What we know:
This protein is an all-alpha fold. It has a single domain (10-438), classed as Sodium/glucose cotransporter (Up-down Bundle). The chain is built from 18 helices and no strands. It has helices at 10-21, 24-36, 40-68, 72-79, 87-119, 127-136, 138-156, 160-187, 192-200, 209-222, 229-234, 243-271, 286-291, 297-328, 335-354, 370-397, 400-407, 411-438. The termini are far apart. The relative contact order is 0.20.
Amino acid sequence: MKQRDQWSSKIGFVLAAAGSAIGLGAIWKFPYMVGMNGGSVFILLFIICTIAIGLPILLAEFVIGRMGQADAITSLKRLAPGKKWPLIGWMGLAVSFILLSFYSVVGGWILSYLTRAIFFKLDATNHGDLFNTIIANPVEVLFAQAVFMGLTIWIVQSGIKGGIERASRWMMPMLFIFFIILAIRSLTLDGAMEGVRFLFVPDWSHLTGSTFLLALGQAFFSLSVGVTAMMTYASYLPKEEKLGQSAMNVAILNITISILAGIVIFPAVFALGHSPEEGPGLIFVVLPAIFSQIPFGNMFMIIFFILMLFATLTSSIAMLEIVVSSGIREKIERRKRAAWVFGILIFIVGIPSALSFGVLSDVKIFGGSIFDFADTLTSKIGMPLGALFVSIFAGFVLTKSQTDDELRMHPVMNSLWKFLVRYAAPVAIIVIFIVSIFGL
C-alpha cells in the first residue's frame, strides 16, 4: 500500500478548502439572497453567523479529519470504534453523490453560456427565453453536463498534489483576479453608487427574525459543511499545521468572495435600472442582459462565466473527492479508476435532474421537479443533519484533551470553540432545519 497523499503546503490546503466552499452558494445564491433581503443588513448578519456558527462546525470537521487521517467513514471508525458514528461518513458520501449529480447540471448550464458568449455574441433581447431554451434542450444539457463531469473527473483522478491542489492553486487566484476586473468595471458605470449604498449602508428596517434565519442558513451552507468535504480534505493535512488559522482563512476567503460577488453585481443592477430583487434568475437572466448593454460587454460576460466555471469546479472536485476517498479507502493506486467509475455513475444519476426542465418536466416529486427534489434532499435535509451530527460528535464524543491537542489554540479559544460546537451550532442547525422543512 502506498503512503497516504498529503497537501504540499498550507496555502494549497486553504485554497482547496476555500474552493470547496466558494461555489454557486457564494456567486449565485448569495447575491440574490442579498437582493431579496435588504442588502447590507443581510450581509452583516451573514458575516456574524459565518464566524459564530459556521466556523466552529468547519473547525470540527477539520479536527475529525486530521485526527482520523483517512476518509470520513474510516476516520470516524478509528475515533469511535464499535459505535454508529461512521454513519455520518456514509451520510456525507450519499449527500455528496446526489449533490454532485445535479450540481453538475448547473455546471453544464455555465459551460453552455460560456460557449455561447465565446462563439456567439449574447445580444438577445429576452435572456429569460434564452435560459429556458438552454435548460429544456436535452442534447445540450446532457452534453454540457458530461463535459463538466469529465473536467471534474480529470482533476480528481490526478490526486491531491497533482490534481486538486494544482487546480486550486491557479483557479482560485484567477477567480480573485476576474472578480476584481469585473468589480472595477461595475463600479465605473454611471449610477453604480446606488448599488454600493445598497450593499454597505444599513437599512435597519430589514433587521428581522426572518432575515437572521436566512443569513444563518446562507452562512451554514456557504462553508460547505455537513457533507464531510472538509473532513476529507483535512485528513490529508500534516500534523504541524494549525487548524484554527486554516479554518479562519477559509471563512475569510468565503466572506470576501461573497461580498466581491455583490460588488460585481449590484452596482451594475442599479446603474442599468434593474431590480435587486430578481431572485435566482439574477445570474443567468439579469447579468447577461446587463452585459449586453455596456461597452465590451461580451468580453466581460466571458470573464464572468469563466469565473463561474472555476468556482463551480472547485466545489465539484471536493464532492467527487469525498466519494473517491471513501471508495479507495487509502489504496491510492486505485484513485484513477475510482474517479472515472464514480464520476460516470454520478453523471448517470444526474440525467433525470438534467432533463427535469425539458422532457421530464411533467414528472413531479412532492410538487417539485426532479432537480428540486434532489436539491431539497441534500441542502435542506442531508447537509443540516450531517452538520448536526458532526457538531455533536466533536462536542461530546471527542474528549477535551483530544480536541485541545489538535486545535493547539489559546485555552480560552479552545473552550469557546467547545461551547459553540456543543450548544450554539446544534441549536442553530435545528432551527434552520425546522424552518426550511416546514416553512415556518
